[in-house]
């Protein structure tokens, strides 16, 4: 094929390069290289378009030709004599009559039948699809998705399997039915509340981190960054298991298998992700033996490790799960990390090293402990703020409530979880508690023992709801305390439980405020409006449960039942459970959040309170700060990779 038709076009429109030149051949000779190139491009695009038409419309062209009964039939390449090759690679067979013609008609017939059959099948499939309900279609889509996932899994063998390690003794993970019918009735009620919370989340918030029970949709907060990691599912799993809600547990497990992916661009709180997700996944693994939970916990833990890349090894408060970049909260004193955050990793990280054989986890938390041990402590107290760049304390604020709380808890629990072999942890706990008792714990004029907050040498006579967990901690640590002070610490636990009960009992709703004062004639009541809320927190009920286990004093079950009834009465809505903004108002407004810790902790502790002691016995299980039970590791017989052999 030549392009004569284009020559005049180029001659007319493209200006000459030499002034005065006018003849056509001269024009061509003076065309610039780039212009020639553009011309060539246009030309080749045109040719491609022509050829493309043949490629992209083969069926239509076939059809038209057949329908018209043309002599010249366009069909895909067939080796025939006398063929003339068409530019598209197809073949034009010229009509000839006789034997060839007969054969061509047969081929034409069979092709036509095939096309007709294809069309009918497609039509049939479309009709069937239209007849299906929305649910059936969704189920079909899901099956297809699962198939794709399966295929992907087959292609990608995934992370290396973890080394086999002996499963620690797992005892008392189910049943626990109390012999007394009235207690059993209460326990059943708590299980029903759990069902309501879970089913509502399942219906309205599935896959989101939390639930808005009034708006009936998903909810999240900045601790989870911009993610949808199903925090409520992971946090609730072990409670479901312990309550014998196995269908629900399976549902959660399936979601985790298919959807929980940590490669997301989200900046999360290292502490919250550790206690809720790693703690929740490890507990679900130990309870159920399902490998998927262990694998997910390890995948997530790897994403947290970059948070420790600081000049001191004290981790950042937040880390981006995708980039590994870490930073601290903007509100924290002098760019500091928070004591209760970097000090609440030990239990989970020891288990991670145990399960993976990777010493890194253990070494990271032991490094934190060693660094703290070397530092001066004002009045023997640990300030809540520590700068991870300089290794210096920030503001001298010490509390057993928010910002400090679970640091002390994890010292004690590190000792318990090591089968009481980690004597360094026990000693650090004992020393810290001794200083706290000296400087922070006081009796009010009305005789209530409270834990205040130490701020730059001054005691603020205010106690947070969060600090109420300490009643349980003192009782749990009583056995093994120095100088035979077990009785003293059990008594201290009882006094804190009593004070916290008073903070509930002195409200209209019989639910406790976020913080309460012991000042200017005030006893265990909130003053400021922004301290009057109750957000379904567990700490007071947690302390009731520990006190019940150690004393079997029936008042703890009674107090727990009061709280359960108040929650059911004032926080229950048709779409789940919500926090309330003012516990002193008979007509409270809701905050419209069902916190994930309500399912992980509050309802679990209530259920255990109305169960017999053989469910989750404290000799075998240690609950992390989010109430996720981890088994005691008999470290007398095991040496963790990266650790010295344990000393008794
Ligand atoms: C929980 O996430 C944990 O108990 C944490 O240690 C502090 N408090 C919340 C619930 O109140």
What's the layout of helices and strands?
Elements: H1 6-13, H2 24-29, H3 33-56, H4 58-68, E1 73-75, E2 84-85, E3 91-93, H5 98-131, H6 134-155, H7 181-205, E4 210-212, E5 217-219, H8 231-242, H9 246-259, E6 267-269, H10 270-288, H11 291-304, E7 318-320, E8 326-327, E9 337-338, H12 339-342, H13 346-356, H14 359-374, E10 385-386, E11 397-398, H15 405-417, H16 423-439, E12 441-443, E13 449-451, E14 453-455, E15 458-460, E16 462-464, H17 469-478, H18 486-505, E17 515-517, H19 539-551, H20 554-570, E18 572-573, E19 576-577, H21 596-609, E20 621-623, E21 629-631
Antiparallel strand pairs: 1-3, 2-3, 4-5, 6-7, 7-8, 9-10, 11-14, 12-13, 14-15, 16-17, 18-19, 20-21
The structure holds 1-deoxymannojirimycin (DMJ).
1-deoxymannojirimycin binds near residues 537, 597, 601, 625 and 626.
Organism: Amphiprion percula (Orange clownfish)
GO molecular function: calcium ion binding; mannosyl-oligosaccharide 1,2-alpha-mannosidase activity
Subcellular location: Endomembrane system
């Amino acid at each position: 094929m030549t392009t004569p038709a284009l020559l005049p076009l180029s001659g007319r429109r493209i200006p000459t390069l030499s002034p005065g030149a006018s003849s056509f051949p001269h024009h061509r000779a003076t065309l610039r290289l780039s212009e020639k190139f553009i011309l060539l491009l246009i030309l080749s695009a045109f040719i491609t378009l022509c050829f493309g038409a043949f490629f992209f419309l083969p069926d239509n062209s076939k059809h038209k030709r057949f329908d018209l009964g043309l002599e010249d039939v366009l069909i895909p390449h067939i080796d025939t004599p006398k063929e003339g090759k068409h530019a598209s690679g197809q073949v034009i067979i010229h009509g000839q009559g006789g034997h060839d013609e007969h054969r061509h008609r047969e081929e034409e017939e069979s092709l036509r039948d095939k096309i007709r059959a294809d069309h009918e099948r497609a039509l049939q499939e479309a009709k069937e699809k239209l007849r299906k309900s929305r649910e059936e279609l969704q189920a079909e889509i899901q099956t297809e998705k699962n198939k794709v996932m399966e295929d992907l899994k087959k292609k990608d063998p995934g992370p290396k399997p973890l080394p086999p390690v002996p499963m620690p003794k797992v005892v008392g993970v189910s049943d626990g039915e109390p012999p007394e019918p009235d207690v059993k009735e209460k326990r059943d009620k708590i299980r029903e509340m759990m069902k309501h919370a879970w089913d509502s989340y399942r219906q309205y918030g599935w896959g989101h981190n939390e639930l808005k029970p009034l708006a009936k949709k998903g909810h999240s907060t900045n601790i989870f960054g911009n993610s949808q990691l199903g925090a409520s599912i992971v946090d609730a799993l072990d409670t479901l298991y312990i309550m014998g809600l196995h269908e629900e547990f399976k549902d959660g497990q399936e979601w985790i298998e298919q959807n929980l992916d940590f490669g997301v661009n989200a900046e999360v709180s290292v502490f919250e992700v550790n206690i809720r997700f790693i703690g929740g996944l490890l507990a679900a693994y130990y309870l159920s033996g399902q490998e998927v939970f262990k694998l997910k916990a390890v995948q997530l833990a790897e994403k947290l490790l970059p948070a420790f890349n600081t000049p001191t090894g004290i981790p950042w408060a937040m880390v981006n799960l995708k980039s590994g970049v870490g930073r601290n909260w903007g509100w924290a004193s002098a760019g500091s990390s928070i004591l209760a955050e970097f000090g609440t990793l030990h239990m989970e990280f020891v288990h991670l090293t145990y399960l993976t054989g990777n010493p890194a986890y253990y070494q990271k938390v032991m490094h934190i402990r060693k660094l703290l041990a070397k530092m001066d402590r004002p009045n023997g107290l640990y300030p809540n703020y520590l700068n991870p760049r300089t290794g210096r304390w920030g503001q001298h604020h010490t509390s057993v409530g928010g910002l400090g709380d679970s640091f002390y808890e994890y010292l004690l629990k590190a000792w318990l979880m090591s089968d009481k072999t980690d004597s360094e942890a026990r000693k650090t706990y004992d020393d810290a508690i001794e200083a706290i008792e000296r400087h922070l714990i006081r009796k009010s004029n009305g005789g209530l023992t409270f834990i205040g907050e130490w701020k730059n040498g001054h005691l603020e006579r205010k106690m947070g709801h969060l600090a109420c967990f300490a009643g349980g901690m003192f009782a749990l640590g009583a056995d093994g305390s120095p100088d035979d002070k077990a009785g003293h610490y059990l008594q201290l636990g009882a006094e804190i439980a009593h004070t916290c009960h008073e903070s509930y009992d002195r409200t209209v709703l019989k639910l406790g405020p976020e913080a309460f004062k012991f000042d200017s004639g005030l006893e265990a009541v909130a003053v400021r409006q922004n301290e009057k809320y109750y957000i379904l927190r567990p700490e007071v009920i947690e302390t009731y449960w520990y006190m019940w286990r150690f004393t079997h004093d029936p008042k703890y079950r009674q107090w727990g039942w009061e709280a359960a009834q108040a929650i059911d009465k004032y926080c229950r809505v048709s779409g789940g459970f919500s926090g309330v903004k003012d516990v002193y108002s008979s007509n409270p407004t809701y905050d419209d959040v069902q916190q994930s810790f309500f399912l992980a902790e509050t309802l679990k502790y209530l259920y255990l309170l109305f169960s017999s002691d053989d469910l989750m016995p404290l000799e075998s299980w240690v609950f992390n700060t989010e109430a996720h039970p981890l088994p005691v590791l008999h470290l007398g017989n095991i040496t963790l990779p990266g650790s010295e052999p344990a000393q008794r």
